[in-house]
Amino acid sequence: MTEHPLSHTVIVDWDGTAVPSMWPEQPQEFMPGFVKNMNRLHKAGFRILIQSARLNPYDPFTGVERDQGIVATEVQYMRHLLDRHGLTYIDIWTRPGKASGSVYVDDKGERYGGRSRSWDKVTDKILLRLCGEEAVFPNLYDVTEATADGATTAR
Fold first, then answer.
1. Into which CATH architecture does domain 1-109 fall?
2. Distance between CA 64 and CA 127 in Å, rounded?
3. pLDDT tens figures, 85-134
4. Helices and strands per DSSP (H, E), number in the chain
5. Beta 144-146 vs 152-154: how paired, if at all?
6. Is 79 helix (H, G, I), strand (E, B) or coil?
């Protein structure tokens, strides 16, 4: 990954945000306006970082660990498409965990405002949005286990 001095970092989701949502297929074109606006952000001095569930070491449908070769192929696909469109300055997050950024751009996100009624508002949005949609991923988090400090965690 390229080293950057302190600057704002824009974290961009891949499927449904940078490219059409077609996982596990590999779309070969970006969403309308993506290339132009990544260039605008870059010109403004922002670092741009792609973070994608495609690079998750676990299969989202089964929870089973994925072959690292499959993940490496996804990184190569993303890098090739970015480079082909002149977006060589965009980095791809390949480290564990969530990348730190100033703003996150994601087709599935909801904005939390941090005010006294923010959780009420975001919950209303989630209920309105998801109650009308069919679930896509299985619930892999039904089983919990106790940690050393007595807390419970999904496994």
1. 3-Layer(aba) Sandwich (3.40)
2. 29
3. 999 999 999 998 899 999 999 988 888 788 888 888 888 887 888 887 77
4. 3, 6
5. antiparallel
6. helix
What pLDDT does residue 115 have?
85
Given a contact cutoff of 8 angstroms between Cβ atoms, the answer to whether 89 and 7 are in contact is: no
**117, 134, 137: which is closest to 125 by C-alpha?**
117
74-84 pLDDT, tens digit per residue, is: 999 999 999 99
Residue type, 99: A
Q: How far apart are CA 120 and CA 139, in angstroms?
A: 24
Domain with CATH 3.40.50.1000 in the chain: 1-109
What is the C-alpha separation between 94 and 97, in angstroms, rounded?
9
